[in-house]
Every structure is written in structure tokens, then in C-alpha cells.
Amino acid sequence: MKLVRQSTLRFLMAAGAVLLAVALPAQAETLKKRYTFDYNPATRSASEARAKSKARKQFLADFLEAKFSRAIIESLAEEIDIALDPPDEFLTDFKITNTRFNDDETKIILTVEGDVNLPAMVSALVQNKVLSFGERPPRVMFLPSSRFDDPKAAKTLRALVYEQMRQAGLQSVAFEGVTEITSVQIKQSPNGLRVLAKQALQYGADYLIYVDPETDNRPASIGGHICDANFIYTVMRPNDNRILGEGVITTRGSANSGMVAFGKAMDEAAPILMTRAVGQLYQSIFADSDVIYDQKQLRNNIALTVYGKTSPQQTQAIIKALQAQNAYVTLGVGGVGDRMTVETTLEVLDLYNFFNDQTFEAGGMKFKAPVVGYGENTLEVEIVTPNGQPRKARATNPPPRRPRPSDTGASTRPKGIVCNLKPSLRAPAFVQ
């Protein structure tokens, strides 16, 4: 049975704050909406201008509602309105496709269509303390292909992209030191995807943005050089080799030299890449995360030692089972047995019951891990066959439950939106 705090259950049931898994388009997000506002025929121009202004704000609010629940958007309406003012800064395109009135001209009905600059919106929400990515922000690697002839050009593009992500509170993972960088031809094969995912996981990245250029750099008839470039990008989640978004950006640059011409083509592609690829990255982070309200979330750090391991898969099975309980697990070194730190809302008693009741499976074989020792913030288990007995004496008396502070008086209104990446979607730990 899954171990979940009752307060967490109350939060999930009351808030309904489940992020929507949205489709990831190659272009900026184009939405089409219809709004109705009050209208005064005596002040025709002013009424219409006021309605158009309201339509822009409502358009952004509806876009955010597709990412978070209505309850959260309504609770933070004022904070969001302040962060996203003026709305035109976050609309890459906005037009009114149709305007009409009701029969007595007391209402104006606007049909609008627009594209949202999601990276700019996320940065504004983060800087205004409305949105954050939790205590451990997702780690993102920007990986250029080997067809970037000039390493400085790849670093420049990375800097432009990561400045946008830095403002949004994400962690950057450098690509320097990666020795196996594939071309787009390899990337399109299943083996190529695995190679890309392996590179990202080795550096602890939760997401990967891979960019590969195709260039036609030639002398111009009037002198200098012309560079026609396709920048092919892929947004991946490496822990399951999943492609979350792809696209091609086509640009042209001209200059006295081929290298400078390529640089100008890249300068043209950079803002588009930030809107599309980084936007798709944020879409996937939203879909992969849990929303957390301003509620007391007690976290315990428990040192876990696993004895009797006969294969690395057994340790990995235990880690995955703990992650399924929303625990964050890091491996330690030294000593006898596998050591790990478990950060969780559960306490030692909960983990005591969990391990004594749980049956694990690794490599097609089932095993148990009964508790053979515990302390105030420690727990020791030993791996045995389903009907076997541990070499160490089993702990037969359960640890006492700690008194918990009362949740009475905790605010049900969130201070802000917190996106915590689900433990199961983080890059898995490598077990030797």
C-alpha cells in the first residue's frame, strides 16, 4: 500500500492541482478564444479599447489555466496580474479576428488569436515570486552536435538559451567534457537516442536540449559569404529516452567571412530557439511536476543501510520503490553495505513498516528487505529471499512515532506556485 501523508491527500483532493499534460507544438502556442465584455455605446471608442485590453489579460490567464488548476490561478490572480503587466510583452502575436455586439449593444464580443512567449512568461512569474521549481530545480543540459565547427559559437548559443532558463530558476549543466557527441543522423536512430540520453544522465541532467546545425556556406556573387542554416533542435527527457519536442529553425546570414556569416545566421535563430525549444522544455516540466500549496511539508533525512546485496539491480529496485513514495534518494559511499540518504515526509516508523511489508523484484527474482536495526534517523535492512531469514537479528519492536506539529491554522491559499519534479522522473542514480 502506498504511504502518503493525510495532509498531502487533503491537499491533493481539495486543490485538484494536477498539471495538465499538454501537447508540445513546434511553433509558439497559438490559441484562439472568444470573450464577452460590457459595452457602452455612448463611449464607443473607450469601451472598445477597454475590452481589447481586458482580452489580452484574459488571454494570458487562460493560457496559464491550461498549465495549472483554476483554483490556483484564482487564488493568485492579483500576483499573476502584476507579474504579467503589460501583457503585450508576453504575446509574440495577438490579433482580433472578429468583433461583434449583442442586439442592444450592451456587450462586445471579441474573437482573438495569439501566440504566447512562454519562456518570458515563466521568467516574469519566477522573478515576481509567483512560480518556482522547488528545492531541487530540474537540471538541464544544452548539448550541441559535433557539426558546430566553432566551439565558441555553440557556447554563445548556450549562453543565450541558459540566460533565459537561469532567470527562471533552472539549473544548467555544462556540456564541456562530453566526448561522444552524435550527429543528427545518429540521433534519429534508436541507438542515437540512447547515446544522447546516456550523455545527459552521466551529468545528472533531468532534461536535454540537443541542437544540430545544417549549413550551406558559400561565396556570394557580389563578394563575401552567404550562410543558409537549419538549426534542428530536440528536447528530450533522458531517463526514459522520450522526445518531448522537436523543430527546425531556418535562417540566413551574410558577412565578409563564412564564420561570421554563420554567426549572423545563429543570431537570427537564437531568439526563435528560446521561444520554441525553451518553451517546449517548460511545457514538459509543467506536465512532469506536482503543484504544492503553502502547507506544512515536514521532510526527514534518514540514513538507510542495505546489507546482503547480491546484485546492483537489487539496490536500484529499493531506490525505485522509495521514489514511488515521493522520497528523494542519494547514494553514499564507504562502510559495509550500500548506504543512502532518504529525504522523505515519512518517518522511521513508516519506513520500518514499509520495508517489512514490501516485496521487491530485480532481474526476474523476488526478494524481501526486513529491518534489522534502526535509530532516531537511521534504518538498516538486509536483503533475503522471500522465505529467508536475515543473518542479523530482525528488529521486532517498531520504533515510536514522533509527535508532529499540528497543521491547524495552515493557510489553504498558496503563497505561490511550486513545481516539484516527480521523483520518478529525475535522472536515476547509477548503482555499481
Automatic annotation (TrEMBL):
Residues 1-28 form the signal peptide. It comes from the Bacteria. It comes from Chloracidobacterium sp. N. Keywords: Signal. This is Uncharacterized protein. Residues 385-417 are annotated as: Disordered.
